[in-house]
């Protein structure tokens, strides 16, 4: 028990919480960016515009089927060779997460819209609504109800996946825990316990939010 | 990129083999464990239901990397010596089994109870009803999401790179750091991942479409 008390002394806890802060920061920024880009790409692919939708679909499919870790490596080590600019670890992570997650979200958003019955659009159009009016007032409100659970679970994945950025030495939660048990191997078990608990709290809070939104929307 | 394949082809393909092998082991393991916990979750008795729920919620909400690292550094320190490949594959199995449990549970729950009752009252035995009525419907519901789990498994197996697991990502990093041709190497690695994941993903989309429209016609 003494090792636990030592491992959880305030210096270490504060260091862990600083890491958690970076994790949350990276997650929130990536969630905002990837939701916006994912929505645009998902809609573009859904609208079946000649060539454009095909190209968007191709890019989305390629990115979705690559490991995020590869995209992180590529953004940090490979991209500077092409672009000639080097990102710091924070922005490299945010860019990599955004690229990967917006592809995942684009697909969720597209299939959410597809899941709304075609008849809805036809009925709206034949009642005199324009395409965008029908989309905004009829299709999207129904699609959003179907999309919220998969979108939130994607966000949960995103939070968990920020841990992969330890490999490019982003000072987030996982990396800070490694630094602490690197100094004293007795701290290993306490640190992994702390990691599990901290990640669980953040992710479980998100899944409770998803359930809450789901209930709210099905009442409406 | 061709240069990388020419000079380091055998190293890349060996990584490809380890990635595939780890994904297959983890798929089989997580199917077994996942189905078991799915049955726990729909059990009429409370204790297994609670155990199933706790298992799924814990492992769905903790990063795979944390689970894999526990097997890679904590387990050898205090329990048994295991190598990176084994540790990574065990981590993958546990992590994925939580997702598979959810998929299987949803699949079983979505087949209407009336189907079994109707089959039985038409004179079929329980086994016949399962074989001809329930399972064909359940499989159609469960296979596309399970396929997507396999794709995730292949992608997630890249955490083996953290554990010296000899997988594709690990070999790619070694090649990238010895040749300094990072861009080319990562393109080559990406291509090899896509060889597995892209056809799988199109197949699952095709099956999903085919089986969902069949349902509408019937």
UniProtKB/TrEMBL annotation, chain A:
- InterPro entries linked to this entry: AA_ABC_transptr_permease_3TM, ArtM/GltK/GlnP/TcyL/YhdX-like, MetI-like, MetI-like_sf
- One GO biological process term: amino acid transport
Q: How does it sit in the membrane?
A: Multi-pass membrane protein
Which keywords does UniProt give here? Amino-acid transport, Cell membrane, Membrane, Transmembrane, Transmembrane helix, Transport
Q: Which CDD domains match?
A: TM_PBP2
Q: Which residues form the ABC transmembrane type-1 domain?
A: 20-210
Listed Gene3D superfamilies: MetI-like
> What SUPFAM superfamilies does the record tag this protein with?
MetI-like
Q: Where does the record say this protein resides?
A: Cell membrane
Q: Where are the transmembrane segments?
A: 20-44, 51-77, 89-109, 155-175, 187-209
Record's Gene Ontology CC terms?
A: ATP-binding cassette (ABC) transporter complex
Example GO molecular function: transmembrane transporter activity
Family per record = Belongs to the binding-protein-dependent transport system permease family.
Q: Which PANTHER family match?
A: INNER MEMBRANE AMINO-ACID ABC TRANSPORTER PERMEASE PROTEIN YHDY, MEMBRANE COMPONENT OF AMINO ACID ABC TRANSPORTER
Protein name, UniProt field:
Glutamine ABC transporter, permease protein
Q: Which organism is it from?
A: Agrilactobacillus composti DSM 18527 = JCM 14202
TrEMBL record, chain B:
Organism this protein belongs to: Agrilactobacillus composti DSM 18527 = JCM 14202
Protein name, per record: ABC-type amino acid transport system, permease component
Which NCBIfam families does the record match to this protein?
Answer: HEQRo_perm_3TM
Against Pfam families, the record matches this protein to: BPD_transp_1
What does the record list as GO biological process?
Answer: amino acid transport
- Localization: Cell membrane
Record-stated family = Belongs to the binding-protein-dependent transport system permease family.
Tell me where the transmembrane regions lie: 20-40, 61-79, 85-101, 159-180, 186-204
Q: Where primarily located?
A: membrane
Q: Where is the ABC transmembrane type-1 domain?
A: 16-204
Listed under GO cellular component are: ATP-binding cassette (ABC) transporter complex
Going by the UniProt record, its keywords in alphabetical order are:
Amino-acid transport, Cell membrane, Membrane, Transmembrane, Transmembrane helix, Transport
| Keyword flag Transmembrane helix | yes
One GO molecular-function entry: transmembrane transporter activity
Query: InterPro entries from the xrefs?
Result: AA_ABC_transptr_permease_3TM, ArtM/GltK/GlnP/TcyL/YhdX-like, MetI-like, MetI-like_sf
The record describes its membrane topology as: Multi-pass membrane protein
Q: Which residues, by range, are in coiled-coil regions? A: none
Q: Out of the domains of life, which is the source?
A: Bacteria
């Amino acid at each position: 028990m003494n090792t636990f008390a030592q491992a959880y002394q305030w210096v270490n806890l504060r260091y862990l919480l600083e890491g958690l802060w970076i994790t949350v920061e990276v997650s929130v920024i990536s969630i905002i960016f990837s939701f916006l880009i994912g929505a645009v790409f998902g809609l573009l692919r859904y609208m079946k515009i000649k060539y454009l939708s095909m190209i968007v679909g191709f890019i989305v499919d390629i990115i979705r089927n690559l490991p995020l870790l590869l995209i992180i490596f590529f953004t940090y080590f490979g991209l500077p060779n092409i672009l000639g600019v080097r990102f710091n670890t924070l922005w490299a992570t945010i860019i990599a997460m955004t690229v990967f997650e917006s592809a995942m979200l684009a697909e969720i958003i597209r299939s959410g819209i597809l899941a709304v019955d075609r008849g809805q659009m036809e009925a709206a159009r034949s009642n005199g609504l324009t395409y965008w009016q029908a989309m905004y007032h009829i299709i999207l409100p129904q699609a959003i109800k179907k999309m919220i659970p998969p979108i939130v679970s994607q966000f949960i994945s995103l939070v968990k996946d920020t841990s992969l950025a330890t490999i490019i030495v982003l000072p987030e939660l996982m990396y800070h825990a490694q630094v602490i048990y690197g100094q004293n191997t007795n701290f290993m078990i306490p640190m992994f316990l702390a990691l599990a608990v901290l990640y669980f709290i953040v992710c479980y809070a998100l899944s409770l939010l998803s359930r809450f939104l789901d209930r709210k929307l099905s009442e409406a | 990129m061709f240069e990388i394949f020419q000079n380091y082809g055998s190293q890349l393909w060996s990584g490809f083999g380890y990635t595939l092998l780890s994904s297959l082991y983890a798929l089989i393991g997580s199917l077994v464990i996942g189905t078991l916990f799915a049955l726990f979750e729909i059990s009429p008795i409370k204790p297994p239901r609670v155990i199933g729920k706790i298992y799924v919620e814990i492992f769905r909400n903790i990063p795979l990397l944390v689970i894999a690292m526990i097997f890679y550094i904590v387990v050898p320190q205090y329990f048994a010596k295991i190598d990176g490949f084994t540790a990574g594959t065990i981590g993958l199995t546990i992590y994925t089994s939580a997702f598979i449990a959810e998929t299987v549970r949803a699949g079983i729950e979505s087949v209407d109870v009336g189907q079994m009752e109707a089959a039985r009252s038409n004179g079929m035995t329980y086994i016949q009803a399962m074989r001809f009525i329930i399972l064909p419907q359940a499989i159609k519901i469960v296979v596309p999401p399970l396929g997507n789990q396999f794709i995730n498994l292949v992608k997630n197996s890249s955490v083996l790179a953290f554990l010296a697991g000899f997988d594709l990502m690990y070999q790619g990093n070694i090649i990238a750091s010895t040749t300094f041709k990072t861009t080319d190497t990562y393109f080559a690695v990406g291509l090899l991942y896509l060889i597995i994941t892209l056809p799988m993903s199109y197949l699952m989309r095709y099956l999903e479409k085919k089986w969902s429209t069949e349902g509408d016609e019937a």
